[in-house]
TrEMBL record:
This is Leucine-rich repeat protein. The keyword Transferase does not apply. It comes from Artemisia annua (Sweet wormwood). Keywords: Glycoprotein, Leucine-rich repeat, Membrane, Repeat, Signal, Transmembrane, Transmembrane helix. It is found in: Membrane. Its main location: membrane. It comes from the Eukaryota.
Amino acid sequence: MDFGENNLTGTIPQCFGNLHGMTGGDSNLYFFGGFEQSVIQVMRGVPLEYTTIMRYVVNMDLSSNRLVGEIPNNLTLLSGLLGLNLSNNHLTGQIPARIGDVNSLMSLDLSGNDLIGTIPQSISSLTSLSHLNLSNNNLSGRIPTGSQLQTLIDPSIYAGNNELCGSPLPKRCERDEAGVTTSNNGKDDDDIEMIWVYAIASGFATGFIGILGVLALSKRWRLFLYSFVEVKQK
């Protein structure tokens, strides 16, 4: 379904979640009657031309329009969807928390919108995802890790989201920095404690030796010690 680069306005209809041909529920819906047709679909950020179509390209492209509002949660029901491109619109709100339910998704492009909030952890369960673009939004928080996301290490995927942190961006999350600081502070505290122990021990030893030195230099104390030793020997 390609409605990209038009002047569509308004919100994305909730009923798009009822597109049965994109749910993967009936494999017979993926086949045509055997005629040829030329179709260009944008997948993984690259325009691809299909000339002999024996199967639906299960792709939804609504990019470069003037769509507003939030991304409908019902889109996460399209478990057979391979590509979703909603880039360059005026979409607001958060990325649907259950985006990971679209488990066939290979390409996801939500760039160039006004999306806010954190990136859902469920996105890490998209094991087939090979193209991701979330750049130029207002996303914040830690970038999820795990599974397929470990292979998507291009920082440009998340560029233009100043409040995002974590790999692959150079910006570290505050919690990580706090952990490093706390760890360093703990080490510093241990070092300071050891210094105090050494200082006290050294001071005690120095003082004791000093007292013995004074006593050794005193003639009166030397005579007393000699007398004490002679008495003990007898």
